[in-house]
Amino acid sequence: MDHEKAVRAAAVQISPVLFSREGTTEKVLDAIASAAQEEVQLIVFPETFVPYYPYFSFVQPPVVMGKAHMQLYEEAVTVPGAVVDAISRAARSYEMVVVLGVNEREGGSLYNTQLIFDADGTLGLKRRKITPTYHERMVWGQGDGAGLAVLETAVGRLGALACWEHYNPLARYALMAQQEEIHCGQFPGSMVGQIFADQMEVTMRHHALESGCFVVNATGWLTPEQKQQITADEKLQKVLSGGCYTAIISPEGVPLCDPVTEGEGMAIADLDFSLITKRKRMMDSVGHYSRPDLLQLQVNQQAWAVMQSAPTVPLPEQDSPLSSEPIPHPVD
User: Fold this and answer.
1) Domain CN hydrolase, which positions (predicted)?
2) Catalytic residues
């Protein structure tokens, strides 16, 4: 680790263009260009921001959400595809690491997917949320352990988790054990109210302290008009409010800038990597403060598939004993 390194990071709080993959992607590209003017080297967007988080599934019963679910299928992102190509070009053009949440479609399934683009435009990691939360299970499939990986990037060793994956301590520890230097958190925002924002702050600051890494956390935002688009029920519109905490936290658990909790905006801060060593000198959860003789974590990091090719069994040669000798019969 370069102890003298400093990285300028941005967490973006932003509203999508509802029902439009193309429109939301344009907002992502505009935000990347704006961040480049601030000399940002790492930018993090909210959970499943492209085309939009499925807020409908939180306020509609399954029996009536079919139309909205189908529309999400139609606007979802494929990997590879046009959205990936556009973000790759922007990352390469501005030499910026980009962490983007998308609704990914593969075949007949949708996934909550986090994409990490390196500063040369390479898509370095595609990971899927390992367990969708509550209502989300009606929308997305499950990810696998292949996504529990820390990626070496131009700005350092990056890991990412989405929303309540942060309440899975073993998932967090899997990233910590890989010497995560910057953790990228993504949440939907505009849900549940202030209590969600309060819980998020506690969770993000705790991970920074426990892992001894920086946390860059981004949440989405819905305008009053967008809440009306999602539901005409005024009581349910109140449910789609609050819950925003876009922030950057130091390895000592200290916010490095004012968080964004209302409206659109960017939290921008410089990450001084010497703070990682300063924190871990006191408490290194995966080093001198661990007890691997007592406690260990096992992780299956293989990607799963519904079908795998069986190994080919060679046919016996013509002059082999198997083909030339008569087949023995049981003796009466």
Assistant:
1) 7-273
2) 47, 129, 163
On whether residue 316 sits in a domain, the answer given is no
List, in sequence order, every residue forming a beta bridge with 272; answer none if it has no partner.
6
**Computed from CA positions of residues 88, 40, 9, 23, in that sequence, does the dihedral angle turn out positive or negative?**
negative
**Assigned domain for 1 exists:** no
Question: Helix or strand or coil: residue 183?
Answer: strand
216 is a domain residue: yes
Instruction: Judge whether 42 and 8 are in contact, CB under 8 Å.
Output: yes
The model's confidence at residue 292, banded by pLDDT at 50, 70 and 90, is: very high
Q: Which residue range(s) make up the domain with 215? A: 6-282
Beta bridge partners of 99: 44, 116
Spell out the residues 6+ positions from residue 3 whose beta carbon is closer than 8 angstroms to its own.
273, 274, 276, 277
Reported pTM: 0.92
The full length of the chain comes to 332
185: CATH: 3.60.110.10
DSSP letter, residue 252: T
Distance between CA atoms of residues 99 and 11, nearest Å: 10
The set of residues, in sequence order, having a beta carbon less than 8 Å from that of 118 and lying 6+ positions away, is 91, 97, 124, 151, 153, 154
pLDDT tens, position by position, 7-37: 999 999 999 999 999 999 999 999 999 999 9
In whole angstroms, how far apart are CA 64 and each of 70, 222, 230, 259?
12, 22, 13, 36
315 found inside a domain: no
Q: Among residues 164, 163, 162, 161, which one has the least CA distance to residue 178?
A: 161
